[in-house]
Every structure is written in structure tokens, then in C-alpha cells.
């Protein structure tokens, strides 16, 4: 199928883009188009106006400050994949990108597009959840900043108003004392994940876990943090006992299911993937020692 007819707009400033969103009826912003394009071709989405953000300056790029990394929403996934700043200070994002589609889609797909589409199986929202990312959003009323944890309002739905644009994402720098791992299961590489796990563990000088972050994807409308499992690790040595306790916290995990991948199967996958992520973190920690 082909997309329904629409009018195309290419603003050259954020103010112009916001004005178009405000004044045009049934308008949608276009980032990389890797999700919206197929939806339009299938006529799941039929906006009357398409506002291409590719011509808006300052919406792309990676900037490092003392304690965080700010990424423009229009930064492509390929640019993130090749960024030494991301590799050094946001290694979980870099690990997650290994599973995002294929290079052709990463060449066009953007960070902001992935977060705003908010597919339950997407890798970048999972990394944003694990790292407590902050989202900067521009609209007619000005600029607001919200934590990613407050962004989802349901399946493929966000708290972004129709006349607002996500402009940047702020990731706190991962401490150099931390190790991380990203694991997912899909039928084929590049397919949507059935389940995914992102783990980041920071260690104190005595070798105990000072901060544990475990984010789970593919089990609900949006990524979730395994808070009980994180608490089971925090303050303890990263050994078989603490890992077993953390994995035990996943036994009663609330998971969505369907006829192909029932909830019990997804719950099993999450436990297996978390165990694999723990093993990867242990190997990285051992390598550093």
C-alpha cells in the first residue's frame, strides 16, 4: 500500500515547526520516519500534514557536560552508535544500539523518534528507563523537562501534547566504576524483541554494589524498572547469593502476553536474559580487576 495524500512541510527553525503544529489540523512531526513511514504506508496513520524536522538546526548532536550527556532528539541512531562520548559515558545506550534494527534503519532512525513512538519492544526507550533520562520538550507554553519514567501514558502513547516537540534527551553519565549489559531475545536479529533487559551496576570501593539498575522491556506498554530486584542487589557483593535473590524477585513479574508469546513465556525470558546480563556484568567487572 501507499500512504494517503498529505501536505509536506520542511521548517528551518524550531519556532516555525511549533507554529505549523499549532496552526495545522491533523499534523504530525517527522523524525527519521522508520516507524511513522511504515504506519503511513499501511494507512494505520493518515496525517493530513507532515512536518519534517530534518531541516531544523540544533536538534541533532551529542554534547558532554560535567555530569551528563545531552543528545539532540534528531540525532540518528547510527551517529549514537559511532559516538565516542556515548561509548565512554553511556555504555548501556551503545550496547542497546547493537540490537536496533539493521544499519540501514539506524542510518535514518533517530533517538527522539524511537522514544516518541515508544514501541514496547524498542531498545532505546529501555536504555532511557534504565538510565533515568530526562526529556526536554518544547511547546507553545515554552520548554518543560520531565523524567522518562513519566513519559508513557499507555501503549504507543506518551505525555507529549499534539503541539509539542521533543528537542533533546539528557543522560546522566555512567560512573567509570560501573559495568553494564544489554540482552534481548528475538526470532531473528533485527526483529522486534520478545523481551529485553538492560542492567547497569555501579560498585563502591569495597566491591559492593552501590547502585543497581535493571530495566525490562517487551513485557508491558513501556519499559519498567525491576525495583525489587535492584534493592536485592544494592549494598551487597555481586555474588551468586545476591544474584539469586534478585532473580527470585522476577518470579511474580506482571507481564503482558498474547497467543504467540504468553505471559509465562515472557516472564521466563526476562529471568533468563537478566541472568545472562548478570553474567556479562561479572565478566566485565573481572576484566577490570
Order of helices and strands: EHEHEEEHHHHHHEEEEEEEEEHHH
Q: Unreliable runs, pLDDT <50, ≥5 residues?
A: none
What is the helix fraction of residues, given as a range?
25-40%
What's the number of structural domains?
3
Describe this structure in words.
The protein is an alpha+beta fold and 289 residues long. It has 3 domains: 7-51, Uridine Diphospho-n-acetylenolpyruvylglucosamine Reductase, domain 2; 62-172, Uridine Diphospho-n-acetylenolpyruvylglucosamine Reductase, domain 3; 178-288, 2-Layer Sandwich (Enolase-like, domain 1). Helices cover 34% and strands 25% of the residues. A 5-stranded antiparallel β-sheet has the order 4-5-10-6-7. A 4-stranded antiparallel β-sheet has the order 11-12-13-14, sandwiched between helices. Helix 9 packs antiparallel against helix 10. The radius of gyration is 19 Å and the shape is globular. The termini are far apart. The mean pLDDT is 96.
Topology of this protein?
Elements: E1 7-9, H1 14-23, E2 27-30, H2 36-41, E3 49-52, E4 62-64, E5 68-72, H3 77-81, H4 84-89, H5 91-97, H6 103-108, H7 111-117, H8 123-130, E6 134-139, E7 142-147, E8 152-154, E9 157-158, E10 165-172, E11 178-185, E12 195-203, E13 209-217, E14 224-225, H9 227-233, H10 240-248, H11 263-288
Parallel strand pairs: 1-3, 2-3
Antiparallel strand pairs: 4-5, 5-10, 6-7, 6-10, 8-9, 11-12, 12-13, 13-14
Helix pairs in contact: 5-8, 9-10
Amino acid at each position: 500500500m501507499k500512504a494517503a495524500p498529505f501536505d509536506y512541510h520542511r521548517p528551518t527553525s524550531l519556532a516555525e515547526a511549533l507554529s505549523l503544529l499549532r496552526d495545522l489540523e491533523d499534523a504530525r512531526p517527522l523524525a527519521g520516519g522508520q516507524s511513522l513511514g511504515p504506519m503511513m504506508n499501511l494507512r494505520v496513520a493518515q496525517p493530513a500534514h507532515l512536518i519534517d524536522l530534518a531541516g531544523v538546526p540544533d536538534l541533532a548532536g551529542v554534547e558532554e557536560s560535567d555530569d551528563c550527556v545531552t543528545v539532540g532528539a534528531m540525532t540518528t541512531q547510527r551517529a549514537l552508535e559511532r559516538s565516542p562520548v556515548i561509548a565512554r559515558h553511556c555504555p548501556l545506550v551503545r550496547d542497546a544500539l547493537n540490537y536496533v534494527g539493521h544499519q540501514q534503519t539506524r542510518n535514518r532512525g533517530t533517538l527522539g523518534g524511537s522514544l516518541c513512538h515508544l514501541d514496547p519492544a524498542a531498545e532505546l526507550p529501555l536504555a532511557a528507563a534504565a538510565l533515568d533520562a530526562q526529556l526536554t520538550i518544547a511547546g507553545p507554553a515554552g520548554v518543560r523537562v520531565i523524567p522518562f519514567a513519566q513519559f508513557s501514558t499507555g501503549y504507543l502513547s506518551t505525555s507529549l501534547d499534539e503541539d509539542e516537540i521533543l528537542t533533546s534527551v539528557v543522560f546522566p553519565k555512567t560512573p567509570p566504576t560501573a559495568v553494564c549489559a544489554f540482552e534481548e531475545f528475538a526470532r531473528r536479529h533485527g526483529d522486534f524483541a520478545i523481551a529485553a533487559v538492560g542492567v547497569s551496576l555501579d560498585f563502591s570501593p569495597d566491591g559492593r554494589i552501590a547502585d543497581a539498575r535493571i530495566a525490562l522491556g517487551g513485557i508491558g506498554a513501556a519499559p519498567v524498572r525491576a525495583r525489587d530486584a535492584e534493592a536485592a542487589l544494592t549494598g551487597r557483593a555481586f555474588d551468586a547469593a545476591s544474584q539469586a535473590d534478585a532473580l527470585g524477585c522476577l518470579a511474580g513479574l506482571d507481564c503482558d502476553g498474547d497467543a504467540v508469546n504468553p505471559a509465562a513465556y515472557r516472564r521466563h525470558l526476562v529471568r533468563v536474559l537478566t541472568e545472562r546480563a548478570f553474567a556479562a556484568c561479572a565478566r566485565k567487572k573481572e576484566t577490570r580487576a
